[in-house]
């Protein structure tokens, strides 16, 4: 099998309203923008990958075709080396790796998780908020998620004062598993600069969270400051999480070697690729660190991460849920929509490759 070309589709899906993501300060998001990539081969199989995008997109299927045409998608390491050159001179390309595994699985007529050594066992899901909101709003949001069957939620905080949201949710839901995400690792600066925390502030927030029995505090510091992460981890009993938007899979190992996190979260669509994520999970396990990847991208990215989680028996699956950002909105480019089962879990798709089907309508424009 050889890759014969790459075609890019810039997709935009209108949300039924808007919300203000904590990682895009001051920006009301009303559309879901996706860069969809189609890898054609000299066989009947086509592989698909997708990346978060922005209005108008950033077109680079021409350079990708130049680098990848003639490559065997089974030779993942060789393709990754080619993509490293794309990363050097252009946009972050690691999402393309999911298309390779889509092709490999389709050629073998097996789901990717099976090729990677995993099973189809459902994975417990936690509802991942997008906004900060106020106390009343977040209490209502949490109740809605519990009513939907979630047994764990992740709350967003932007400033130290937002700990009061976590306090209120803990008081009202004493048995609920609660994660906390500060979103200080990175930001998209469309409207304004984000509020960064110093190590002193991050420690103060962590200590305020200690009596609230939270599962983890996520990204309280800039993502490249591994030393400060390690120092914070030593000085608080709250588990520290991060790594969702590191530059590449190598930096995941650097973060682990620095002792920076209790939970490492590389997204297969953004950082690690699929087999790279499996390797990071194995290295994390050796160090007593949990592996729970970030999944807030799109339906294809969610599917790719599910295959990785299934391969490594991850303890949790992040399930984005901030209406109007719903499963239907996340998965608009797919024929299928990922939903929870009756036990609050989500299972990897069991069809060949990534196990999902891109809707013909999005390919036809």
From TrEMBL:
Pfam families linked: MR_MLE_C
InterPro entries, alphabetized: DgoD-like, Enolase-like_C_sf, Enolase-like_N, Enolase_C-like, Mandelate_racemase_C
Mandelate racemase/muconate lactonizing enzyme C-terminal domain mapped to chain residues: 135-239
SUPFAM superfamilies given in the database record: Enolase C-terminal domain-like (SSF51604), Enolase N-terminal domain-like (SSF54826)
Cross-referenced PANTHER family: D-GALACTONATE DEHYDRATASE (PTHR48080:SF2), D-GALACTONATE DEHYDRATASE-RELATED (PTHR48080)
Protein name as annotated: Mandelate racemase/muconate lactonizing enzyme family protein
Top-level taxon: Archaea
């Amino acid at each position: 099998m050889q890759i014969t070309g790459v075609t890019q589709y810039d997709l935009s899906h209108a949300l039924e309203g808007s919300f203000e993501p904590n990682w895009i300060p001051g920006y009301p998001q009303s559309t879901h923008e996706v860069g969809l990539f189609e890898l054609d081969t000299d066989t009947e199989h086509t592989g698909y990958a997708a990346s978060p995008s922005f209005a108008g997109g950033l077109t680079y299927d021409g350079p990708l075709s130049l680098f990848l045409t003639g490559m065997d998608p089974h030779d993942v390491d060789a393709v990754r080396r080619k993509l490293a050159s794309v990363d050097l001179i252009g946009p972050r390309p690691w999402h393309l790796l999911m298309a390779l595994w889509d092709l490999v699985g389709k050629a073998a007529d097996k789901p990717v998780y099976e090729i990677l050594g995993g099973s189809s066992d459902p994975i417990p899901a936690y509802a991942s908020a997008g906004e900060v909101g106020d106390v009343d709003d977040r209490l209502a949001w949490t109740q809605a998620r519990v009513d939907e069957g979630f047994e764990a939620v992740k709350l967003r905080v932007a400033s130290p004062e937002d700990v009061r949201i976590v306090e209120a949710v803990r008081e009202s839901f004493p048995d609920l598993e609660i994660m906390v995400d500060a979103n200080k690792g990175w930001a998209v600066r469309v409207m304004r600069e984000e509020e960064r925390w110093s190590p002193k502030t991050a420690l103060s927030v962590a200590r305020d969270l200690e009596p609230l029995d939270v599962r983890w505090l996520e990204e309280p510091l800039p993502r490249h400051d591994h030393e400060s992460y390690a120092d914070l981890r030593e000085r608080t009993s709250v588990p520290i999480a991060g790594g969702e938007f590191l530059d590449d899979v190598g930096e995941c190992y650097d973060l682990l070697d620095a002792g920076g996190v209790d939970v490492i979260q590389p997204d297969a669509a953004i950082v690690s690729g699929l087999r790279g994520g499996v390797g990071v999970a194995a290295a994390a396990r050796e160090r007593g660190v949990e592996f729970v990847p970030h999944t807030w991208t799109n339906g294809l990215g969610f599917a790719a991460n599910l295959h990785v989680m299934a391969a490594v028996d991850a303890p949790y699956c992040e399930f984005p849920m901030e209406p109007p950002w719903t499963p239907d909105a996340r998965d608009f480019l797919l024929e299928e929509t990922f939903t929870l089962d009756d036990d609050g879990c989500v299972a990897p798709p069991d069809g060949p490759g990534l196990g999902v089907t891109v809707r013909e309508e999005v390919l036809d424009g």
